[in-house]
Specification:
Layout lengths: L1 E4 L5 E5 L2 E5 L21 E3 L5 H4 L2 H8 L2 E5 H9 L5 E4 L2 E5 L2 E7 L16 E7 L2 E5 L12 H4 L4 E5 L8 H11 L3 E5 L11 H10 L3 E3 L6 E3 L1
Parallel strand pairs: 3-4, 4-5, 5-6, 10-11, 11-12, 12-13
Antiparallel strand pairs: 1-2, 1-14, 2-3, 7-8, 8-9, 9-10
Pfam families: Lactamase_B_3 (PF13483)
GO molecular function: hydrolase activity
Keywords: Hydrolase
């Protein structure tokens, strides 16, 4: 399993020969200015919620790649109005795709499109495939619902926000890792804006003190998981 970070909460997971792109927001992120958005290839695009810093490049990438877009019903309906046709709507629950079982989980966060209209409930994903399993919480505060994650699957790695203010901070992410029973965490949703700039070393130490691992990825870097 490989993880490539494109900034904010946009990343690509390569698993079992398939490429899964999450929350495509690149061109609006000054920190990701060196990323060639037109060079990104995906088989699937998964969208946690409708905010611009998670869906800013969604329509253009979906149309260019022809990837299957998976998200909540409201986001999929909106995409169809934009001319995106290869889509799969979900609500909270599980579905067996050709790549494995995907579960759309609750997230504690707001969700709207860039014009302020309703974008459905915010969520996160558990992807359980034959050769790997991971959990991406999406934007969320710490919540007790995370204790349900091991009911669905035991993730090898989890991608959690660590920036605070709009989401969990690193301290809350440590507790979230207890809830989901996963000690290998990748941090996202940090540094992009002034509100979410973090002390990287302090965040890492919080995890080290708890006997866990936190990867704070560099934009454009690929990691073997």
């Amino acid at each position: 399993m490989k993880f490539t970070f494109y900034g904010q909460s946009c990343f690509l997971i390569e698993l079992n020969g398939k490429k899964f792109l999450f929350d495509p927001f690149i061109t609006g992120n000054e920190l990701a200015k060196n990323i060639d958005v037109n060079g990104i290839v995906a088989d699937y695009i998964l969208v946690s919620h409708g905010h611009g810093d998670h869906a800013g490049d969604l329509v253009s990438i979906a149309k260019r790649t022809g990837a299957l877009v998976i998200s909540n019903f409201e986001i999929i309906t909106w995409l169809q109005l934009q001319g995106v046709t290869n889509v799969h709507p979900m609500n909270f629950g599980s579905y067996d795709f050709d790549f494995g079982t995907l579960t759309l989980m609750q997230a504690q966060h707001s969700s709207s499109f860039m014009d302020g209209s309703y974008a459905g409930a915010a969520g996160g994903f558990i992807l359980n495939a034959p050769k790997g399993c991971f959990y991406y919480s999406g934007d969320t505060s710490l919540m007790l619902d995370m204790q349900l994650v091991p009911h669905y699957a035991k993730p090898d790695v989890a991608i959690l926000p660590i920036g605070g203010n709009f989401t969990m901070n690193a301290r809350d992410a440590v507790k979230a890792s207890d809830f989901i029973q996963c000690d290998h965490i990748i941090g996202v949703h940090f540094d992009t804006f002034g509100y979410i700039r973090i002390d990287h070393e302090k965040a890492r130490k919080l995890f080290e003190d708890a006997g866990k691992q936190l990867l704070i990825p560099d934009i454009g870097a690929t990691y073997d998981l």
